[in-house]
Structure formats: structure tokens, C-alpha cells
Amino acid sequence: MKEETEQARINIRAVLPSAWLAMGLVLLSVAAGSAPRARAQTEAGPTPDPRFGAVEAFWAPQAAAEAGLGWERILFYWREIQPTGPEDWNTLHVLEEWLTEARAQGREVVGVLKQTPGWATDGVENAGIPRGLYLPLNHSDNLWANYVRRIAAYYGPLGVHHWVIWNEPDIDAGVYGYEYAGSVADYARLLKVAYLVMKETDP
Known about the structure:
Elements: H1 2-44, E1 49-55, H2 61-67, E2 69-77, H3 78-81, H4 96-104, E3 108-114, H5 143-155, E4 162-165, H6 184-201
Parallel strand pairs: 1-2, 2-3, 3-4
């Protein structure tokens, strides 16, 4: 019996180094496998959170990605995109690389449509009601409907599907910083036309 016990001790001593070596190799393997994943998660930044966003994050896209921003607001000035007439189409006003980068980093772009060009209104430039606003949506003289349709057709495929119509339209005309000179009814029509045209063009 004593000889069997002694033999068992000898066998355990012989096996222990191999067992420890095997365990060490397993731990090293696990660590090596998890390290690249951990590095990748750190480099990629947090998952974009749709509850948080920023105005014009394209000025600091890497910081926006690291902060986990889920959306960003970009201003689309009608007077810059079509400065002299309906045939104008200035795509350098909102650069496509801003939209591409936002999409690559998982940020939704929310576009703000604002500022009527002088040729498109009988009122105050930048704040006036677009000419033909109350005409049918498919009428060639409904300048606002035509513009919104072209915006949706062009920027929808580039990933812009969310839009805000005008900026702070509640500021009374004539007050410093005002951007909208129409009535409440005019603004309701502005919204309705934009909504219907957007849904039709980029559902």
C-alpha cells in the first residue's frame, strides 16, 4: 500500500509540469485572441447613440465618432444651392464627403432647409414665402415643391432622409435674427408641401 501511494506521488510530480505548461498555453492563446478584438473595439469607438447629436459634426468627424454621436445637423441654404435660378445646382455647398463620412461612422444626417433666394420670392430675400407655394405640388411654378423634390432625389441616395423645414420660424419678422417672414398658415403650407414631396420622392 505504501509503495502504491509513493508511486502515485511520483506520477503526480511527473504530470504537474505538463499540466501547468498546457494551462499556460491555453491562457496565452485566449489572451492573444482577445487582444485584437479589444483593440478593434477601442479604435472603432463607441456605438453611435441616436439620442445624442451635434450641429455640423463634419468639422470634427473623428471627435464625433469617439463621442458616439448618432446624428448631426447640416444646413442646406436654398440661396446657396440655387443662387440665381432653378437650373442652378451647387453641390459644393454641402460636400458629399461630409455625408459619406457621417454614413461610414454611423451618424444620421438631419438636413435643415432654409433661406429663400431672391429670385424665388416676392417677399424678403432669405425669409420670404416661396413663389407659387399654394399651387399644386406638380405645378411647374410651385418653386418650393420643385426645389424640395430635387433635394430629396439628389440627397436621398447619399443617405439624407431626415429634414427640418426652416430654422426658428417662430421669431417675428423684423426681430433680430428672424429667418421667416410668412404667417403661421404659410408655414403650415411650407411644411405640408415639403412633407408630401419628400414622401413621394424619398419614401
